[in-house]
C-alpha cells in the first residue's frame, strides 16, 4: 500500500525527511482502506519508518488487533533533490549545479538506483509474507519503491515515465502467491473518490 496524502504546504520533495505527517484527507484515506480491508485475513501489518507510512498503517492494524511493525527496507527512495522544490520555474531544475544529476534516467542518476530499491523491497515483502504465512500481510511503503518493484515482478523495464506510474495515494498493489511462487499482481484504489480530481487519472481497467 502507498501512504495517504501528506501535509506539505510548501510543496517540497520531502523524501526521507522526518516531520511530514498525513493531512486530514490522508487520514481519511487511511481509514477508508482500513475499512476496505476489515474483512480480509490480515495477520501482519508492516510499514516504512517514515511518519506518513506509520500513520497510514495504524488504522489497518487497529482493525485487526495488531501492532504496526517497522521495516526500514520499505523507506522512500533516496533523492538528491530531497528538501527542495522540483520544477522549472523557481525549482531546482533552473539551477545549473543540479543538472549533472539528471544525466542518466536509466539508473537514475539523481537518486537511489532502481535495482537497489527492488532488492530491498523484495526482501521486505518476503519477510512480511513469512510473518503472515497462510494469511495476508499489509505492507505500507512509498510510490517509487512500490512501482519499480511491481515493474520487476511483471518483468518490465525499471526505467519509466514518472507521469505514468499506476500507484496513487492510498492505493493497493497486491501480490498473490501459490506457495513460494508469485502468481498474480493486482491493483486497486479503495480511496479513489477521495483523491483530488487531478490525481485520479484514467479509470482502472478490469483485473488491474
TrEMBL record:
One of its GO terms (molecular function) is phosphatase activity. InterPro entries: His_Pase_superF_clade-1, His_PPase_superfam, PGM_Phosphatase. One of its GO terms (cellular component) is cytoplasm. This is Histidine phosphatase family protein. It comes from Mangrovactinospora gilvigrisea.
Amino acid at each position: 500500500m502507498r501512504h495517504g496524502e501528506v501535509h506539505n504546504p510548501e510543496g517540497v520533495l520531502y523524501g526521507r525527511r522526518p516531520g511530514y505527517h498525513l493531512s486530514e484527507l490522508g487520514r481519511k484515506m487511511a481509514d477508508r482502506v482500513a475499512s476496505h480491508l476489515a474483512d480480509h485475513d490480515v495477520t501482519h501489518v508492516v510499514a516504512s519508518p517514515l511518519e506518513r507510512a506509520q500513520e497510514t498503517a495504524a488504522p489497518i492494524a487497529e482493525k485487526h488487533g495488531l501492532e504496526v511493525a517497522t521495516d526500514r527496507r520499505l523507506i522512500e527512495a533516496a533523492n538528491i533533490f530531497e528538501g527542495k522544490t522540483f520544477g522549472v520555474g523557481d525549482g531546482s531544475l533552473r539551477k545549473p549545479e543540479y543538472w549533472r544529476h539528471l544525466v542518466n534516467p536509466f539508473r537514475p542518476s539523481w537518486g537511489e538506483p532502481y535495482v537497489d530499491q527492488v532488492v530491498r523491497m523484495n526482501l521486505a515483502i518476503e519477510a512480511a509474507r513469512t510473518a503472515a504465512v497462510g494469511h495476508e500481510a499489509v505492507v505500507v511503503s512509498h510510490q517509487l519503491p512500490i512501482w519499480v518493484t511491481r515493474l520487476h515482478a511483471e518483468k518490465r523495464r525499471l526505467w519509466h515515465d514518472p507521469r505514468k506510474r499506476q500507484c496513487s495515494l492510498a492505493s493497493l498493489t497486491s501480490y498473490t502467491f501459490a506457495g513460494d511462487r508469485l502468481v498474480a499482481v493486482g491493483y486497486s484504489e479503495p480511496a479513489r473518490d477521495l483523491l483530488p480530481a487531478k490525481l485520479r487519472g484514467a479509470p482502472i481497467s478490469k483485473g488491474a
